[in-house]
Amino acid sequence: ITMLRYAYTKRHHAIAATSVVGISSIVLFNTEDNHTFQEQKKKSPPSALITPKTIPPRAEQLTRLSAGETYDILVIGGGATGSGVALDAATRGLKTALIERGDFASETSSRSTKLIWAGIRYIATAVAQLLRPGTVLHPIESVKSFVGEFKMVMGAHKERKVLLEMNPHLTNWVPIAVPMKSWVSWPPPFGHPLFAIAPVVFPGVMKFYDSLSGFTCPPSHLMSNRRAKRKFPQLDEDVKYVQVFYEGQHNDARTCTCIALTAAEEGATVANYTEMTGIIREKGDKGPAVGITCRNNLTGEEFEVRSKAIIFAGGPFTDSLRKLEDPDCKNAVKGAAGTHVVLPGYYCADGIGLLDINTSDGRFLFFLPWQGSTLVGTTDRKEDAVSSPGPPEDEIQWILNEAEKYLSKDMKVRRADVLSAWQGYRPLASDPNAAPGAPVSRDHIISTNPDTGITFITGGKWTTYREMAEDVLNRVIKMKGLKAGPCVTDTMPLRGGVGYSRNIPVQLVQDFGVSEETAKHLARTYGVNAFEVCKLTKPSGKKWPRFGNVLIEGYPYLECEIEYCCKNEMVVTVKDMLTLRTRLAYLNSAAALEAAPKVADLMGKSLGWSKAETKRQLDEALAALTEFGGSVPKKVGSKLSAATLTDIRALFDQFDLDKNGFIDYQEMKTMAKELGSPFETEEEAQKTFKKMDVDNNGRVYEDRFVQWWHETGPDDKLRKELGNKFKFSAEKLGTGSESRGVAFG
User: Fold this and answer.
1) Residues 238-287: pLDDT tens digits?
2) How far apart are CA 85 and CA 100, in angstroms?
3) Which DSSP symbol is given to 739?
4) Which residues form the EF-hand domain (predicted)?
5) CATH code, residues 170-249+336-425
6) Residue 147 phi/psi, 5° resolution?
């Protein structure tokens, strides 16, 4: 039925025709990758035989864009929502254009918690609000607010189902464990006394949550303390039970890029690194908008684009677009910053995530397996959005402190384990054009400027991007009187999804001789187009894998992916290849810095760059990568600066060069020199070591090193230099949970 409906849009006739033969299907649950998928009873054409759609290169897209033609829909902003609008419009038969000032998903859409979640938190907050004393004074408003929140959650359940079922090559289910350490939770979650009994009622609540999606997700279930210890050995032993539920997960930047590229496949004109610089109005500065002026950010060339309808989809940066329309406009968006930290994969066991529903400041904190690592986040800080991914050190430290609460005491949450960290901004929206007294939306906002006729959409969540795109497009089509077909994006796979099979990784290993890890990565990134990527692989010179040279050891990214993306997916900068097209910078900022020169060289060859351009691209990428957090803290402006026990032990490990469990005199001298703090004289070195070696046996063990740190004042030269080197204050060795795992790099 899905394929017949898709064929009705007059696209993919051949694929639909061959799929009708196998229309009878059954739903199975894949325990290997936690996917609900459609398993055809009759054999469908091999994925390798499906001819991928070609996308015109960026230069051709720009030629089209500047040709002077008038579009039906022009979308500004290539995040998830903007790309979703372009895809929806193109599949409805509208002449569509999309521009983005950077690369697709370069801002908010690439910096999420990577969850496609239906929002259990929103139900809880809605109930908490409904039960507050203010409901007695304003019952109608409170009930309306609750109903609005509940409708939003129902919409998120629907959209989660669509995204996971239509795109198994980009998404997966992830189990999330919620440890319950007592039968009464105090202080109560969400600040309401009723929620103190959350541990008692949580199993029933999660079954209700499952029911909202028609039980199409893997079922929530309980784990006893004993089973939880076997399944999640990192977990603190002091738990009553563990509640497990399921949410969707994805590589957010890849999903967004696929939305934009699918729009291009469907005929939309799509251009990254193209920025709007002004509005063209029909009668000078007074008439409705009929187009925009924009600039190719790679060449500086400026041109005009005309359109019957213009839609702003700039996320937290929407107001900067609106200022070009009206410099005096009221702000519609407030930014909420969230920091995420990436730790080694061993912090999560067997692909199971963890959720703390009651952190010290009332936020949710997720511990999620992602791309072989552990993703921890997020925070919530209200401020104006900026493009830099650089996170505040205080928030990294807060996350590590909170993460340590639920882990076993023998698990050291060390600051040095931070592989990468970044911040992103979500938009909190209000409608500046709404009538006085109009209700405030708790979901996304769609608003039209009555003077220019330009519509903007902002707010919402990653999960509901498709619904948001459909809503704004329906409104604009009706307002502008455009002729368009029905929305079909709820039955449409994204790029690489038509003909996808869960056996593709096996086919890639067998047909191309790549490693199993690489095959899984390629299939989960490119879908059926993974075969085209593998055709570009070169001999590895090894017995196994025989083909495919990795960009950097420890990660599955191949060198040939760079050539493929340059020629087929409009990537134009080294920075974007390392941050968005591969997620190396988000997984390990140090590894990304190491791989950058190789990526620059490969991209230079694929795109024909000069040596000067290759160097410029590399310098730009290195500057961008240094903004990400890593193992060494950036303590400028940080308030949480006390060294922790874990930090000092990590420092001891660095001094213990031969790893024999103690520091000797030569090791102390060597490390002081390596760290840029050499002793000026032998006498000075001996005096310092004597303070450590109170037993006079030439050995300083870990406990004695910690004691030396505590006893020696901050005026001690070595200790002061070490504090400056690692950018933490050495004034005290903190005690208690507030001082654990926060400072040392």
Assistant:
1) 788 999 999 999 999 999 999 999 999 999 999 999 999 999 998 777 88
2) 13
3) G
4) 643-678, 680-715
5) 3.30.9.10
6) -60, -40
